[in-house]
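Database export, one record per block. Field names are fixed; values are copied verbatim from the stored entry.
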Amino acid sequence: MAVLDQLSASLGADKVLTDEASLQSRRHDYWFLSALNEFQGRNVPTPLCIVRPINVDDVVAAVNICREAGVALITFGLGSGVCGGVIAAPESVLLDMSSMDSVRDIDPINMLASFDAGHNGGAAEAAVAKKGMTIGNFPQSIDLSTVGGWVATRASGQFSSVYGNTEDIVYSIEAVMPDGSVVNFGKAPRASAGPDLRHLMLGSEGTLGVITGVTFSLRRQAEKRVSQSFYAPDMITGLEAQRQIVQQDWAVPVMRLYDEVESARQAGDHHRDGYSVLMLVHEGPASRVDLEVGEVRAIALEAGLEEAPAAITEGWLEHRNHVPSWEDLLSKGLVVDTIEISAPWTRIGDVYNEAVAALKSVPHNLFGSAHSSHVYRSGINLYFTFVAQPADETEMAQTYLASWNAVLEATAANGGGIAHHHGIGRVRKNHLAADLGDTGVAVLRAVKSALDPEGIMNPGVLLPDA
């Protein structure tokens, strides 16, 4: 095929993979529905080829060749996305960024670190840790994701309540636009040079260009870390305690409140029937941490919480990134996922109650539950978990989508935002107007059309179906 010949001639045949093993291994990301399709033996398409660029010039060449041929170009990091952001279409070119994995620069004076977009997140954190610094972004997928993927999905880490989300720690972004031009968004620590164009790439999910490099603004590693745990008589009381803590300006990087269902799993031997568990991790300068621990304890007790063993939080820290695989769950006939949303403080209680009730009303549901994981002055995030077990495996996909719809519709109806940090992908795209409004979706379509008039950049993702 002409596109294959052009890619091989321009980039070198060693960077263009067409063997079956390579095509099969990158057909999709870690979305449950893609795993279900494979598990049930459905045909999952493979791309025309895998292109593995090693520098920006390679990316420019791939973008130009695909644009001129009208061939879809799908950017792939390490495949850890969970919303269907990557599904290879026949005759598409999949751009595997994992070979663009260099540490470009670590600057301890300006506290900046620059990486190729395909650099592994855990490796990036390890590189700056050697200099006594931290990026501060610790998603559960840190060792399975790329720094470019963090930007593309507007990711958030487990310590975000102080260190911030990806948009708070990104200093600049290098990208190849759909016309093949190379741009650098971000030059100074703060600018008033028109709209902040970094946000064209943040959350773009490969639809507006290819992120090729990221520079982060760093922090110094914490001098001290202390764990703390509390029992809350119910979720609403625990949520109110978190509001008091954050609005009194205590900088607690981790505050996670688990409802009664999830507390039984998280607290283990320390579980108390009928109670939720609030876990906190304090870190920073030793004197500040010591003061903060005491003040937060006073706020929590005043709000009606009871102190719990710190071992609960310490156990979470040790095992927080260990989760069963989709294959393990599917082999038991289970339909499972998590859905992260957010809402203002005045609406989050209604979102929690109605979303959990909506999940439990979905046929074949075994349980619906939630925990909070990212806290802000004006509101909070909730992570909903659902588990269902249809007797008929042909109903698994329908049950999965019904569960997602239940949570997103209950969230939107009660004033919440339908996506906190995993992005939109395919699973949320037809709910996007709940957050942006019809006019906002039209604006996003106009941006997409202006930047990518041929529509080659990861089609089928982010924007609702026409």
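Remark 1: The first strand starts at residue 16 and ends at 17.
Remark 2: Residues 326-428 form a domain with the GMP Synthetase; Chain A, domain 3 fold (CATH 3.30.300.330).
End of record.
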